[in-house]
């Protein structure tokens, strides 16, 4: 059994997360929830959305929901930050920053643990509900870091709007 494809996907997931995390350094708690005038998003929402999306792409689409998932990402959290959700301004309207960070890291750890166990045959299975960008389980996993990098760019822009120094 070849592990090249899942190894490549794993490396891309780890790269995307490292790239995203560099933009999260040096932010105060208030800056995580800062929303620029005329916009609706903030860093905390972006990070929570990434956790919900990674769960959806790499776990939910690949193996379905498990009762144990609620310990990784509570259903209410998932619903509040999934695709189509609307960011709510202010820390008072969002989960605590520590919970967002715990779920962000926890989903990533669970994804890396589970995808390491899949075979090529399991990953080549077509999805019940194809996405415009992919139609197999491996495709969902491969799309996850691409999606994350889009949001890393949004986080980088939010940082720049705060007056933070350029990073890449």
From TrEMBL:
<protein>
    <submittedName>
        <fullName>DinB superfamily protein</fullName>
    </submittedName>
</protein>
<dbReference type="Pfam" id="PF12867">
    <property type="entry name" value="DinB_2"/>
</dbReference>
<dbReference type="InterPro" id="IPR034660">
    <property type="entry name" value="DinB/YfiT-like"/>
</dbReference>
<feature type="domain" description="DinB-like">
    <location>
        <begin position="13"/>
        <end position="155"/>
    </location>
</feature>
<dbReference type="InterPro" id="IPR024775">
    <property type="entry name" value="DinB-like"/>
</dbReference>
């Amino acid at each position: 059994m070849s592990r090249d494809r899942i190894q490549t996907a794993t490396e891309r997931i780890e790269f995307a997360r490292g790239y995203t995390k560099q933009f999260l350094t040096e932010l105060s708690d208030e800056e995580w929830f800062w929303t620029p005038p005329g916009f609706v998003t903030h860093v905390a929402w972006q990070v929570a959305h990434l956790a919900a999306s990674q769960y959806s792409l790499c776990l939910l689409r690949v193996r379905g929901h498990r009762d144990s998932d609620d310990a990784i990402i509570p259903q209410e959290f998932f619903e509040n930050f999934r695709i189509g959700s609307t960011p709510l301004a202010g820390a008072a309207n969002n989960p605590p920053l520590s919970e967002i960070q715990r779920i962000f890291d926890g989903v990533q750890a669970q994804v890396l643990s589970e995808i390491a166990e899949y075979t090529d045959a399991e990953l080549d299975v077509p999805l019940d509900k194809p996405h415009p960008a992919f139609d197999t389980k491996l495709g969902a996993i491969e799309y996850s870091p691409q999606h994350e990098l889009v949001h890393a760019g949004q986080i980088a822009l939010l940082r720049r709007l705060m007056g933070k120094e350029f990073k890449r």
